[in-house]
Amino acid sequence: MGIGTYILVSLVKIAIALLVLLTAVAYTTLLERKVVAHIQNRWGPSRVGPFGIWQPLADGLKFIFKEDLTPPYVNKPLYLLAPVVALTTALTSIAVIPIGPWIKLGSINTPLQIADVNIGLLIILGVTSVGVYGVALAGWSSNSKYSMLGGLRASAQMVSYEIALGLSLIGVLIFAGSFSLRDIVDSQAGTWLGFIPKWNLFKGQFVAFFIYIMAAYAETNRIPFDLPEAETELVAGYHTEYSSMKFAMFFMAEYANMVTVACLASILFLGGWSGPVFGPPIVQSLLPVFWFALRVFAFMFIYIWVRGTLPRFRYDQLMAFGWKFLLPLAIANIVVTSLVVALK
Amino acid sequence: MLPLVLFFIFAALCVGGAINLLVQKHPINSALSLIVVMGSLALIYLLLGAEFVAAVQVIVYAGAVMVLFVFVIMLLNAGVEERTEHASRVATVLGVPGLIIGLSIAVWVVSHLAGLDRIAIGGPTVMNGSDVFGNPQAIGRLLFRDFLLPFEVTSLLILIAIMGAVVLARREE
Amino acid sequence: MVPLSYYLVLSAILFGCGVAGFLIKRNIITIFLSIELMLNGVNLSFVAFAAQLKSLDGHIFVFFVMVVAAAEAAVGLAIIISVFRTRETLNVDRVNLLKL
Q1: Which domains does chain C show, CATH number per domain?
Q2: Buried-most residue among A73, A173, B73, C70 (CB within 10 A)?
Q3: Nearest to B117 among C3, C32, C78 (CB)
């Protein structure tokens, strides 16, 4: 494949991935409003189209036409930079996530992934750790008490839970022996006894899985760890002073991060796109993507389910949980996993 | 050709960030320019085939150490730097560029005399992945076999640093 | 292909900026940032020489420098916080009493 074709194929993949990701983000908001509404015995959005199906489009239009207000007392360059940083880092991490095996279109043979890098997992960790600046700068530059508290809380919380998150992945890395997300999926191929899939979850990584999920909820600032934007105490936390599209960028960043977390959880612990493949060739090449999307959807649903169910932690409880429970548990998981692998 | 172009782009970002760090008055702007320097250095490390170091540079330096700096700047919320009266203007205006240019010319001359400017590294082989030797497996093997004792000593150092930080920053009852 | 000396000159420029910042800046946090800049400049030359010698020892050294920098940042910032608490300033010229 020549360099020209390579760049063309990459550009097409980037366009498709962005389109799919942004659509998924938009429709996750609808899903969230619908599911939470039904948990609370309400209907949720129901006016725009059947079952409120065009609600995300209406929301987007509304965001665009709202007045774009910049408060006079803010630190303007950083105030404008913060949402850009948040959204860019949230969208960048999708670049290394594989959503299916290689496909063949005519003479072009390409992976279903924008860039197949051999340090993919490290890149995602790096990009998400830079994402903290979006929240921290938004809080600081807004020059408001609520934003400031939200930004401080967010940066402390995200740095703390990043450690537990990173350590929970070591067990998976020990089994796979690679940072490449594609290799990690390949290491989970096959079944035991013909029906139990060899997912990392069933290889004994269920403790790591729960640590990952809890740390990831804290990283994405979702209930029960949504202290940075706790509306009952901080109005809206770090994005109190933002309006219109700048607020929408924070909103999109949060949901894009949730999608990334769901994709990563499926790849690391649930075997990626593995699943029964059958039918004609065209169905065969699309079924893995469908199985992958199904897992991601399940994770998004659990996110919303948790939001509709659990109350919020207190901040000292949040810190104690991260440092005194999740971190030792993650280290114990590494020790046990490496002992098992070494003695086998 | 492409590696040279990429090198110059990232080097320009690096130097721009470093100079911005000196020019800016508010510490948060300086901290952000240092983050730009670190990010472009990570990309230069990739050009040099040092994958793992590049990733660690972003995760540890840009993503953890600098977050700590930004956090402290936000926490203390101390405004613009105040100038001291007895600071010499001439020393700042002439001395700083003189120091930087002098140092780089000295390095250029020494590396020219040592013949280092004829050695070219980080070519197209790095770009297609055949010359990447700083991959995590190789680093891990070296770190946990040959450098096991230093590794353990640094973990002790980190532990002491954590305890020191907690003791120093805690408000006295 | 990029000549090795280009990397070394870039590393020298970064180190020089670090030294200059350390000398002219009066805010203790910016001084700290200049130290980090110097460490980064040195790291670049380590990685460049590692690529030239085809030896990974340089990468290991960079790794250790980063660990020490992280430890140093944690302790240093804790000291800055406690200094700020007692003297309410970050200007190093005003932290001039030997006994705090």
Answers
A1: 4-94 (1.10.287.3510)
A2: B73
A3: C3
